[in-house]
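User: Please predict the structure of the protein below. I'd like the answer in structure-token form so I can feed it into my own downstream comparison script.

Assistant: Understood. Taking the following sequence of 73 residues as input:
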Amino acid sequence: MHRKKKKKKKKKKKKKKKKKKKQKKKKKKKQKKKKKQKKKKKKKGSTLFTSEIMNSYKPTGKNSNNPSIFLAE
């Protein structure tokens, strides 16, 4: 009886380990995605935001002093 109990415990531990590994993998994937997005954003921004464009862009109306519409693309 004692031996059986021990076996059961071992099985449970293994399952927990697997779950942890899966979570770690998920976390890594999420981080990779975030990094990729950050890189994309940076690249996009540098090509969009040159002083030339900003100087040639003269907004009219409501957002005259707010270039936020420029950023949103």
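That's the full token string. The CA atoms of residues 55 and 62 lie 18 Å apart.
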